[in-house]
Amino acid sequence: MTISIWRYSHLVLAISSSLFLGIASITGIILAFEPISDSIHSYAIEESKTLTLSETITTLKENYEEVISFEIDANDALLASVITYEGKSETIYINPLTGKKLGTPTEKAAIFKFATNLHRSLFLKSIGRFFVGLISFLLIIIAITGILLILKRQGGIRKFFGKIEKEYFSQYYHIVFGRLFLIPVLIVAITGVYLSLERFSVLPKPKISHQIEDVSFTASPKLTIQDFEIFKTTQLKNVRAVEFPFSEAEEDYFLLKLSDKEVIVNQFTGAIISQQSYPFVAFVSSWSSILHTGQGNVLWSIILLLSSCSILFFMYSGFAMTLKRRKNLMNSNLRYSKDESEYIILVGSETGSTFKFANLFANALSASGKTVFVSELNKYSLYKKAKHLIIFTATYGVGEPPTNAKKFTQLFNTLTPIHPLQYAVVGLGSLAYPDFCKYATDIDQLLQTNSKFEPILDPYKINNQSFTAFKNWVSDWSQQTQIPLEVKTPPENKKIQLDQFTVINRTELNSDDTFLLRLRLQSKVLFESGDLLAFYPKEDSIERLYSIAKIDGDILLSVKKHEFGVCSNYLSQLHPNEQVEAIIQPNPDFHYPERNKDVIMISNGTGIAPFLGMLDHHSKANHHLFWGGRTQDSITMYADFIARSRKSKHYFAYSQEEKDKEYVQDVLQKQSQLVSSVLNNNGIIMICGSVAMQKEVIAVLEEISETQLGVSLSHFQQKNQVLMDCY
Ligand SMILES: Cc1cc2nc3c(=O)[nH]c(=O)nc-3n(C[C@H](O)[C@H](O)[C@H](O)COP(=O)(O)O)c2cc1C
Q1: Which of 128, 437, 647, 723 could staple 429 via S-S, CB 3.0–4.6 A?
Q2: Which CATH number characterizes residue 361's domain?
């Protein structure tokens, strides 16, 4: 079944039960404090647990005129019904060691009474109880569909507790807490259903019936209570309650309710008249009550408290996610129908974020006077005036289409477009998955099978919804079509608090129009090589990310100056002691691995930056730096930093030299022995640079892995041995 059916059920059930679930959770939070408060005010005496029944009963009988019954309550305190020597009938807590009165039971606090009634029946008696049972049942299904969604998202059971790709706060913590509170929430829901069914007498009653023969009630041989075998061998910790004989008549007896059975004992001889184990339903019923209420266990009460809080959080974060998704789908700026528009934008998206990019692009096109229509890939159709088709799509599962794109291939094969169409495909995906943006490349190949479709750009892949990469693609598309486009800043970027940095040094441009910029942080912020530095130039406030090298506590960036690049031009004009504003974005997935295993670092162009900081890392590991540039002159700028590391080996490739033209993947291929031995010995391969380079490098690594090690590269990717930060 598709992911969206589960998501749909999860959402519909959550919405339909939200009011009652909210009430049940809030009252659940209040009620979780009851066992905690009871245990604080309990009269339990820890040392009395190992007392035998004979010792306890003897002490009670010595201190009171008559003992009618006693029970050990949920908090292990002894509550007895007695008649005192003064002739008073009392129900009191007693210290079993001394027989002294400790206190009297207090009435349940009004807040707990109120919360209990609301929690159990919403003050609606039987109808309310029915609703509460139903909501508990829905909660079970919500939890199960939630598990399925996490399984789908994480890519299977083995990765269930693996790293979660963080997109935004509510999405991330919905999954984090979902995994954490899954079991307690399921327990609360299942026991809630059980207790409700019990109330409605749907389940068999946990009753015990004793078979007693009259001959059992003999009065001889008469023993004292201290000598009753069963009393001598039973400890108080295994006792739930004891009912004393009503009178000295031969047919009256002791009724012992122990933790696993009920026993009837002759009051004169101590002989066991009857004993019956509790039926299984009694066991389930008692555990359901304990697990649902937390009575007698402070730790479990705290878990129940946190679980109730988590349900409220799930309600908030779930709705926040839905709202965000809906917002991304809607675009109120577009006015043209599919048959009026020249520019058709089709989107493949599961959770809605791809729509955000498609809509930004559509709005930019619309602002430059074009007729634009945005729809889903599943709604692919014939378009009367269309000249351009632009496809934005995410990838899911193992390189599969999102749900709203599943029908596209079939529709495409059955519909022949009215006019020839120029097209471009943009893939949104994540390098955390082995099949990076695979569905986008599949679509591109599909379109190429029909001569009515003419590609105007290669398929373009965007990692982790990078806005910078998206902007670069818009600029490529704009150049290709000669349509000037201005993409508006996504609103999230406007609130960011920036840090101050002082320029320490900037090198001159080299022959590749690249320069190094050394910055020093004004405030204390922890960072590592591989983290990212984000700039938001005043002109457009659009985020630009640069990979950081940490050199003696400073930040070193390698920047390529683009002719019309707002940010790179601004950075290329900075002078020592000038101040710049930016913010460090942690990128823990691309930090130097703390494994003391050999590391192969592969990069091209400015992608070398993080490695300049990592090369002299104080580790026992060997470093192998592969780098691809245009000419020998290109590497000169980095030479000093590379020379700092004594234990690293270098392999450079130059694509524009007169002889020996080669790319970084060619050099890598020549070192296939090294690559396979590093992979085989749990070493790490790090790749930083352009996505085009990454694609070639991955192909070479895949080939080496398959031919020399007999396994696919994804085997090592799953073991986190291949780290990538490409753009
Ligand atoms: C369960 C799951 C599976 C994914 N599988 C892939 C994949 O195979 N390849 C890929 O490049 N990205 C994969 N991604 C990443 C998404 O394609 C990416 O986050 C995308 O931006 C989501 O867009 P959407 O919000 O429009 O659905 C996956 C994400 C999830 C949650």
Answers
A1: 437
A2: 3.40.50.360
Domain assignment present for 48 = no
Same domain, 316 and 193: yes
Looking up tokens 């471009």, which residue turns up?
A: 424
Question: What is the ipTM score, two decimals?
Answer: 0.98
* Same-domain pairing of 116 and 245: no
Better pLDDT: 135 or 156: 135
The answer to whether 387 touches 354, Cβ cutoff 8 Å, is no
Under the phi-then-psi rule, with left for phi > 0, alpha for psi from -120 to 50, and beta for the rest, what region is 136?
alpha
∠ Cα 713 719 720 (to 5°): 90
Residues facing residue 81 across a β-bridge? 69, 91
Answer yes or no: do 559 and 445 share one domain: no
Query: Which of 433, 441, 443, 460 best tests ligand 1's pocket when mutated (most atoms within 8 Å of CB)?
Result: 433
Q: Verify that 529 and 467 share a domain, yes or no.
A: no
Extract the tokens encoding 289. 């009550």
Peptide bond into 221 cis (omega under 30): yes
At residue 493 the predicted structure's pLDDT band, cuts being 50, 70 and 90, is: very low
Confidence class of residue 630 from pLDDT cuts 50, 70 and 90? very high
CATH of the domain at 683: 3.40.50.80
pLDDT for 428 equals 95
For residues 630 and 663, the answer to whether their CB atoms sit within 8 Å is no
- What percent of the chain clears pLDDT 90, i.e. is strictly above it? 67
Predicted confidence (pLDDT) at residue 653 exceeds the cutoff of 90: yes
Which atom of ligand 1 sits closest to the CA of residue 356?
Answer: 26
The finding on whether 288 has its CB within 6 A of some atom of ligand 1 is no
Say whether pLDDT at 318 is over 50.
yes
Kindly write down the DSSP assignment for every residue of 155-193, as one continuous string.
TSGGGTTSPPPP-SHHHHHHHHHHHHHHHHHHHHHHHHH
Evaluate: CB of 294 within 6 angstroms of ligand 1.
no
- Residue-range definition of the domain harbouring residue 124: 3-40+110-204+289-323
What token pair was written down for 83? 């008649």
Q: Is 437 in the pocket of ligand 1 (CB under 6 A)?
A: yes
Is 152 a pocket residue for ligand 1 (Cβ < 6 Å)? yes
| Torsion angle of C-alpha atoms 433, 435, 441, 443, degrees rounded to 10 | -90
Q: Give me ligand 1 centre to Cα 617, in Å.
A: 33
Q: Is there an atom of ligand 1 within 6 Å of 657 CB?
A: no
Can you list the alpha helix ranges (DSSP code H) found in 200-345? 229-233, 280-293, 298-329
Q: At what angle are helices 672-680 and 691-704 packed, to 10 degrees?
A: 80
How many domains does the chain fold into? 6
Using alpha carbons only, give the angle 66, 68, 72 rounded to the nearest 5 degrees. Answer: 120
Strands (E), 199-301: 239-243, 253-258, 261-266, 272-277
Nearest protein Cα to ligand 1, atom 9 = 436
Does residue 682 lie within any of the structural domains?
A: yes
Pair (608, 692) in one structural domain:
yes
CA-CA-CA-CA torsion for 438, 441, 443, 448, nearest 10 degrees? -160
Whether 610 and 711 map to the same domain: the answer is yes
* Res 407 pLDDT > 90: yes
Can you tell me the mean pLDDT for 610-617?
A: 90
Q: Are residues 64 and 182 in the same domain?
A: no
- Assess whether 420 and 384 both reside in one domain: yes
pLDDT range class, residue 448, cuts 50, 70, 90: very high
